[in-house]
Request: fold
Amino acid sequence: MLILHAQNIVKSYGERLLFKIDDLKIYDQDRIGLVGINGCGKSTLMGILAQEIHPDEGKVELRTSLSYMKQLDIQDYDARSKTSYLSGGELSRLKLFTALEKNCGLLLADEPTTSMDLNGIQLVEEKLASFPGALLLISHDRTLLDRLCTTIMEIDNGQFHIYSGNYAEYKKIKELERINAYKEYSEYQAERERLVSRIQERRQNVKQLRKTPKRMGNSEARLHKRSTGEIQKKLHQSVNSLETRLEKLEVKEKPVSEPEIRIYFQTCMKITGKSALKVHELTLRTRNKLLLNKSDFHLPTGSKTALLGENGTGKTTLLKALFSGDPAVTFANGLIPGYFSQKLDILDKEKTILQNVREKSLLSEAGIRIILSRLNFKGDSVHKNIGLLSGGEIVKATLAKILAEGPNLLLLDEPDNFLDLRSREALDKLIHEYPGTILFVSHDRRFLENTADRIITFRDKQLHTFEGGYSDYLDELEQRERRSGHIRQEELLLIQNELSEIIGRLSDPMIIPSEYKALDERYHLLLQRMKSMPQ
Reply:
């Protein structure tokens, strides 16, 4: 059943066309992901469908109840009253659950996992998966888009496209489209060049035929003119035919290539030791809270280690302690750490991108411009002030500044924040190609799967290392949960058997008071233990 129909929607921002959509339909129980680069108009389109933003042209017909979860923004932090004690992740969860409580026919969810840890993201995924109505989702979480969506809608350079399947299938189709577009363009160029060459060749032949050879008598010249006249006529006809084919040749525009983010790490000095750093009996506190108690770990040289833990466990505090050189930390000889803060606070907003990156770099301006160019800051764009940049651009400028300083250890605190899907995929590649050692925090499950070769987790105020990738780590957790489930079941049976035995003994009329008291205490202790066991 059709529940939303948008027709002839046009929306511009100033003189820039955001999108033009001829026809958009949403049916009951649809699961749609809305994708596109940052700034393409995804949130604007969602606002139009929610009838909170007016399009420049077109109309939206809504045939069901609707709930709209807007993207978490700075106002959610600045204008809080009753929710002032909530973190960003908790606010996102509250907004989503409030939207779900309305039992609507269509849910519009704009970045519902913002600022959430992995447990929070998993909970949101489960809630959205069980939602009975239709869902339109904006998210930069590729795993979420793959697991929830059966249709992808894309805004690309003002154009609107619909693809059947989840995000992974959409990417495959896009790659095939790209290959076919380049093939068609190459064939068009080759055919056009062939026709132009043939036309030029025929015209040159006509010119040569017009010339009467020297040392030719009058009678011979007249014969030559008559014979060449027929040939010229045929050549002119051939030229006209070729020109007609050239005019009718379907023009194929050169495909717009996506700018690739790629860095060359000439300044990254190699470390010869097996470990980039070692930590012995590290204790961390924040205010009056103990985060880490005498914990040990190390980072093998060249490893890509993910640091996992719930929000508030101390991941950021640990990265800061490593970067600042806590006494419990031993660096390998020649180690140069670089720290990416999720607060994005190392750039001077009053200065340009180039000025910021140049400050502590040993590279020449040409070398710095190469790095900036690889991050799609080209030409005069390097002279843009930081204060004018989008969130994603600030992330890339921050990465450029850190990389230009030549670190061989990167400490990255949620570097994928504010990045669109295309930039996150590019960041995957950057992490893979980086020759140094990396310790990073991320809540993007696909990013973790693609990049981490080791896992360190916060648990019970200790750091626990798992040697393997994120998928292997999840398998290990599942097996551990299964084992602990069997243990809990066995323990529960033992408790139930002992309770039955105690009840039998308590019912004995010959029991002495002291024994009755001891059994009664044991009975209540076992009951309390059974209630406290995880379900």
The radius of gyration is 34 Å.
